Every structure is written in structure tokens, then in C-alpha cells.
Amino acid sequence: MSGPSTSAAPASGWVRGLCWSAVALEGYDLVVLGVVIPVLLRDPSWGLTAAEASVVATVGLVGVMVGALAVGPVSDLVGRRRTLVATIVVFSVLSLACAAAPGPAWLGVLRFLAGIGLGGVLPVALAMVAEHAPPRRGNAATTIMMTGYHVGAVAASLLGIWLIARLGWPVMFALGAVPALVLVPLILRRLPRDPAPARAEAPVAADRPRTSPVRELFRDGRGRATIAFWVASFMGLLLVYGLNTWLPEIMRSAGYPLGAALALLLTLNVGAVIGLLVGGPVADRIGVRTATITWFALGAVFLALLSIRLPGLGVYAVVLLSGIFVFSAQVLVYAWVGRYYPTAARGTALGAASGVGRLGAITGPALGGALLAAGLANPWGFYAFALVAALGAVAVLGVGRSGAEVPEPAPVDTAPAGHRTTS
User: Fold this and answer.
1) CA distances in angstroms from 394 to 147, 226, 305, 351, 399, listed in the order given
2) pLDDT value for 205
3) Cα separation of 126 and 409, whole Å?
């Protein structure tokens, strides 16, 4: 008779580590285009305009949205491991192709297609970590995994400073593809194979035919919670992308010098990492519902406080606290989604939340740009983003208390492929 694998704990560590590495690819991709575009705008052979650069950036995000929405259900049907491999391979090959793009049109097409692969990485990684997390540490496992996102973003910034002047902009896209050479073999060797039961949590009664993963999001009274999660994810990613894009300019419009404005952007992202390290353990102790509402609400408070001209280190403290609460609030939504739905629909649920959230990722920069263009960034930019955070808290309230306490997932055999044990 089969028994628990003696490799369960090490294999769980491999799941978390490899999924962290996969998520770092998305963080790298978040920044790489912003690093490359200034060079392309000044390259006469490209003739790239600011409007065209904006289109390239937007279609890439649309590709990520399409990938998140499409790949989540695929992972529920064919398995997490093989889906994760496929998304990494697709993204990496197309990212490498971006390095050889001959002009703006081709770069836009390739960024869209690469985005489809990349968009599928996050929901699959989130689902795997939720399913293999240690008992009573599921929220912490999710938020800690998402620190990889920021590590990837910082890596892209630092590599851009160091390498573009020496080797040219194509090297940045090529470096985004290199990790697949290591990640894919490790995933195939170290991640557990998808067990057959992962496709259905329990036998299906004869009078209840098995439904598609998408329909599971709305069965058994889950429709209201599903919509609430989508709204919260939209608000969360609107804040992440809107603030990362426009915080320096908004702070400059408030009278802060350029150096301070850029330092405040760094401070915001340092706060994001702190929030991820703290938010998950707090959610494991007080409940993910309470933590998520609190994080969005406190984010709203500190964003509104930025409308006041603060002296000395005060502004850095408030920006740091804004980063702590705003950025990790979005990840707490993912952690909650990963525990709220049955295993057979978990990838679909996370993909849908991530995909709908990408609409917020597109809206955030547009909102900040519109306020700046209208001369309303100070103070209304701060109030607008604070309102978005408040709406995120209200959306989470819509899930209801019934979703606050979700049973821990049943133990799964986490032995890597080829390392099963029996008793």
C-alpha cells in the first residue's frame, strides 16, 4: 500500500523554491521594457515614438492578461507541472525572439505572445505553492514566494544599468530567456508529477455531472466571492502598476526634487518586500480575511497622508508604510483565492483573479497619466489611489465571513518525479 513519501518536506521546499524562481521571471519582465525603451527611443534606426512605445507596453500587458485567463483552466485539466514547464518555455523562446526584433511592430507582436506564456506562470506557481505549503502556513508561503517578483524587478534594473551601455539592449531580453535552461530541467526532475486525483477532489455523484473549472467558480454560492476577488485584484494591481509608474512624477508635482522622488520609489518597493515577508505570517495568525481588509484599509490611509507635505524623514516613513500595506494586500488576495476554491478549480480561480487584475495594471498607469496631464496629480493623485485602496477593502468585504476559514488542503504526495516511496 502506498504511504506518505519520505521526501515530502524536501520536495515541498523544491516547489516553493522553483515557483519563487519562476515568479522572479515575471518581475524581471515587469521592468525590462522600461529599461530598454529609453534606448530604443534614441535609436534612429528604430524611429520609435513615445506613442508606439506605449502601445508596445500595453499589448504586452494584454498578452499577460490573456495568458492568465487561459492557462489557469489548462493547469486544472492537464496538471500544474507540465503547464508550468510549457509557460516558461513559451515565454523564454519568445523573449529571446524579442532580442532580434527588427522594429516596433515586431516587438509589439512578440511582447504580446511572450506575455501569454508569462501570464500563465503566476497562477500555476500560486496554485502549486498553495497545494504544497506546510500546514497553517499557506498565506506565508504565498507572500514569501511573491518576493521573487520584486527580486526579478530589481535584477532587471541593475543589469540594465550595467550591461546596456556595454552590450546593447538585446542582451536584456536574452537574459530573460536564460533561466529556462536551468529552471526547466529542475522542474522536470524535482517537482512532483500531477496525481490523477488533482483533477477532482472527490468522486462525482451520478446526479451531479463534473463541470468545467470555470463553472466551478460560480457553483455552490461562490459567485459573489468570485466577483469580489476579481474587483479586489483589479484594485490591487491598479495600485501596484499605477504607483510604480507615476509615483516619482506625482511626488515632483508635490514639490519634491527629482532625486528624492526616485528615492521614494525605491522606498515604496522596499516597503513592498517588507509587507510580503510580514503579511503572510500575520494572515496565518489572524485570518486572511481580516488581514486583507486591514492591509487595503491601512494602504488607503497612508496614501491619503501623502497629500500632506511631510517634513524630513516623515515622507519616507509614510511611503514605506504605503508600500508595506498596498503591495502585499494584492498578494493576500491571491493567497485567499488559493485557499477558497477546490483543488480542481484552483488554477482557474487564480488565473481569473490575475487576469482580471491585469485590467487594473493597464488602468493604473492611465489613471496617473491622466491626472498629471490635467494638472491634478497633487493632491488628487494621492486621493485617487487612496480611494482605489479603500474600494479594494470594500470588495474583500463582499467575500463574506464564510470564506474566512477554509480548511487546510488535504496532504498531497510531494515526492519529486522518480522519487516515490511505498510502504
Assistant:
1) 26, 14, 20, 22, 10
2) 39
3) 14
pLDDT at 161: 79
Q: DSSP letters along 132-171, please?
A: HSPTT-HHHHHHHHTHHHHHHHHHHHHHHHHHHHHH-THH
Q: Which domain holds residue 98?
A: 8-196
Asked whether residue 398 is assigned to any structural domain, the reply reads yes
* Within-domain flag for 164: yes
- What's the pLDDT at 41? 84
Cell triple for 107: 516587438
- Which spans in 169-313 are helix H? 170-177, 180-190, 213-216, 223-253, 258-286, 288-305
Q: Consecutive 10-residue runs of the chain (423 residues): their mean pLDDT? A: 45 86 87 84 86 86 93 91 94 93 93 93 91 84 90 84 86 91 92 60 40 83 93 95 84 81 82 92 93 96 91 88 93 93 91 93 88 86 95 91 47 46 36
At what angle are helices 138-145 and 8-41 packed, to 10 degrees?
A: 30
Is residue 410 one of the residues assigned to a domain?
no
C-alpha cell at position 247: 509615483
Cell of 355: 487576469
Q: Classify residue 110 by burial, with Cβ atoms within 10 Å: 0-12, 13-18, 19+.
A: buried
Q: What is the pLDDT, as a whole number, of residue 211?
A: 62
Q: Which domain CATH number covers 122?
A: 1.20.1250.20
Do 248 and 283 sit in the same domain of this protein?
yes
Residue 66 forms part of a structural domain:
yes
Number of structural domains, the chain?
Answer: 2
First-to-last C-alpha distance (Å) of the chain:
6
Residue 206: CB partners within 8 Å, gap ≥ 6?
Answer: none
Cell numbers at 14, concatenated? 523544491
